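Board work, copied verbatim: G protein-coupled receptor kinase
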Amino acid sequence: DKFTRFCQWKNVELNIHLTMNDFSVHRIIGRGGFGEVYGCRKADTGKMYAMKCLDKKRIKMKQGETLALNERIMLSLVSTGDCPFIVCMSYAFQTPDKLSFILDLMNGGDLHYHLSQHG
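↓ predict structure ↓
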């Protein structure tokens, strides 16, 4: 599993050029101030991921350019796979309208749900 994480980190580091065509996008699994998160499947491997799509117009309108850039930098820095409690970014790319971060898909609900269920 550490080798898989290492390979994913290398893909981010090597800046592999991906597009939306490399993924089959499924349903929305979350929404935020700048965009949505979708469940998706990478076409060539069949692996499921979470695709966080940030809308460039919303980012600019809310003056969130620095926040979006910092998120990309921080995700790159923490995506070494050393900590099982941090969602790792495997890929990142952009379209004319969106910034897309391809993240580990974590099934089972968000932290708020689990805290409310189990205290």
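Strands lie at 23-31, 35-42, 48-55, 89-94, 98-103.
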